[in-house]
Structures are given as C-alpha cells and as structure tokens.
Amino acid sequence: xxxxxxxxxxxPSGLMLGHLLAQAGVDAVILERKTGEYVLGRIxxxxxxxxxxxxxxxxxxDTRLQTEGLPHDYVSLxxxxxxxxxxxxxxxxxHVVVYGQTEITKDLxxxxxxRGVETIYEAADVALHDIESDTPFVTYHKxxxxxxxxxxxxxxxxxxxxxxxKAIPADAATSVERVYPFGWLGILADVPxxxxxVVYASHNNGFGLASMRSNTRSRYYLQVPTDEKIENWSDDxxxxxxxxxxxxxxxxxxxxxxxxxxxxxPLRSYIFEKMRYGSLxxxxxxxxxVPPTGAKGLNLAASDIAxxxxxxISYFKDSDASGTENYEATALARVWKSSRFAWYxxxxxxxxxxxxxFGRKMQVAELDYIANSKAAQMSIAENYIGLPL
Length: 389
Ligand code: FAD
Ligand code: DHB
Description:
The protein has about 400 residues and is an alpha+beta fold. The protein has helices spanning about 10-25, 35-40, 50-60, 65-70, 90, 100-110, 165, 235-245, 250, 295-320, 320-350, 355-370, 375-385; strands at about 5-10, 30, 45-50, 70, 75-80, 80-85, 95-100, 120, 125-130, 135-140, 145-150, 155, 175-190, 200-205, 205-215, 215-225, 260-270, 275, 280, 290.
C-alpha cells in the first residue's frame, strides 16, 4: 500500500491529524496497536483549551462538545483550606471547557469511516524504516500476515511508549526529564461534582484535585507516594482523604459513591528535543510528557497537530515546505512554555517532604501572594486557558 502520510497511533493526536489531512484531501492511514474499545476505555484528560476546541470546530465535529461540554469561567486553588477563586474569564476573556478525552476520541472515531479516515486497529509490531530518506515505510502484522505501507512522511502520534521516538538515533537528539517523587491516585464516580469549577488543593497531607466529566460524573485525584498500591485505597478511604485535603469549603459538598475507575499514574516532565527527524514527525506524548497538574497533556498534543496538519497540507497541496521545515521550532517553543506551567503548578501545589519546612513555607507564601495579586492571578489564568498558538 502507498499513501502520503502514515500516522502511528489513534489517540487524540493521531485521530485529529488523520481528520485534518482527510478534510484537505491528503491521503493518510492510521495504524493503532489496540482495539478502538480499548482506546476509548482509557480515562485520561478532561479540560480543553480553546485551541483544542477550535480543531473540533474546524472539523465540524464539535456538536456534542458544544452541547455537553461544561464551560468554566473560574479555576480555584486552595492554600491550606483558604480558597483562591481565580476569575479566568474576567481576566482573559476566555474560558476552558470540561469534556473528556474519551468523548473527543469517540467523536473522532465515530466520524472516521464516513470521512475516509482509514484506521487499522490491532496493528502489531509496527516498525519504521528508512526514516532518514524521502521514501520511508512502515511494516506491521495483522491476523498473522505482514503488511507494508510506503509514504512520503510518517507522523509518530504513538504516545510515550510507542516505537516512533525510539526510531530516532540516540545521538541525533537530546531529552530532558524530571520524575516527581509522587503519583496521582484518580477516582471516577457517577456522583455530582462538589464545585462548579476545577479545584486544586494544597494541603499539608498532600495535593488533592476536584474535577468532573459532567454534572453527574466526578473525577478526583490525590497525591500519593510513587510506590503506593491501589489496594491500600478503598473508596471510603479516598473520599475521607479528599474531604480533608479539599477542606471545609468543599468537604460538605462532596457526594460519595462507588468508584467506576481507580488507578495510580506516575508524574513526570519529559521533553524530547527532536520533533522532526528526516521524514518522521513526532507529536503529542510521543515527544513530551507533562505532569497532569494544569491539564496540559491533551491540549499540547492538540497544539502540535494544529502546527503539523497545515504544514503537511501546504507541503502536498502547495509544494510549500516552509511549514514542515519550521514545525520542530514552532512546536517546541510552545511545548516548553506549557511544560513550564505544568511544572510550576506541580511544584506549587504538591508536598515535597525533601524540601523541608522552608520549601513548604515558600509555597504557602506564594499562594498567599497569588490570593492578593491580580497580576499573579492573570499569569495563572492566561496559562490555564492556554497560551496562543
Ligand atoms: P496517546 O493518547 O497516548 O495515544 C497514543 C496512541 O498510540 C495510543 O492509542 C496507543 O495505543 C498507540 N500506540 C502506542 N504504541 C503503538 C504501536 N507500537 N503501534 C501503534 N500504535 C501504538 N492529561 C491531562 O491533561 N489531564 C489528565 O488528567 C491526564 N491524565 C492522564 C492519565 C494517564 C494514565 C495518562 C497516561 C495520561 C494522562 N494525561 C492527562 C495526558 C493525556 O492523556 C495525553 O497527553 C494525551 O493522551 C496525548 O495524546 P496522544 O494522542 O499524543 O497520545
Ligand atoms: C483534570 C485533570 C487534570 O490534570 C487537571 O489539571 C484538571 C482536571 C481532569 O481529569 O478532569
């Protein structure tokens, strides 16, 4: 088989790219290791920036997002039970929308075949070949047979553990990483949320977060040690600890109920400073990981695609290679800034016992400053709603 672009990975970045290319009449094939049901079963991000929404609007796939998504005009932080409610819309004129990654993925998947977005699920052993040439190809296995797809470009949208980044020789790239000394325990439950806005709580017991997927489905997180076992956290223990960390303002409003998903995820910052190598482009988690504080992961994957899709379209439709030449520099500049915000909010809101009492007092003082400074709130607000593309 021959196509213009082979896209590896049918997460949000791969599906968005596939749709944008199809809309412009550029041939692409998406290869995904898992089944569609598996991809849809992964509970991940929930807060969308305007730039991410714009992609869905451009595709004409925002009907459900506009009707079921919850616009948020505020974000709240707490400083040891003291509430700091930041009016992001009043400060920036913009807002974020709560709409789950699973819903975005479903909207993109459901529309795929009608729009000619070819996706091959359960593609095993995906391997990249000749990526430094202008004639790269990808091989994979399905139903016991080997297949080969030739292309002009390969887009590696295959997440942190996929084969695309690993295909780039180690001496051609640098990467930077910070692994945080804790993880997030997440719980999803069919109960109404405790607040209208997302609440990031800084408490001496550790960080807590109250979020939601809808008016009847809540998503909460707790900072836990990296080696914590999920078996140690009954639903009751999670709800009790959330009430403590979110503080009296929210404790009374928390509706408890059985968990429908419960898992622990590690936190890391990782940036691979090579988003293009020969005929291979990397986008989304394949190139960078942010800690989830600030909800930037999915939005950063979408902004990579907002740069990569028009670059590829200009290449094929206008014989203009300037976008593909500039992709790495343009995307990385935004990646660094979003990574900075995720690192900053992580550092501000979590317990770092190794930083001692001095570190804790500095966090308390900074949050107190934010509570009383419009300039500081503005800085958080403009990052939270998403820096311009
Ligand atoms: P992915 O969504 O990872 O998609 C990559 C796709 O590539 C997957 O479907 C995968 O199956 C496929 N793939 C992998 N290997 C291969 C292969 N060999 N061959 C073919 N296909 C392959 N972000 C937030 O903003 N807020 C959150 O609360 C949040 N929670 C998260 C929780 C977890 C457990 C994780 C892992 C991430 C979370 N994120 C969160 C980050 C956010 O979900 C990601 O940034 C986002 O999914 C990135 O999209 P992507 O398309 O680049 O990668
Ligand atoms: C959610 C996740 C985040 O990482 C965050 O900062 C806010 C909300 C969520 O899953 O809803």
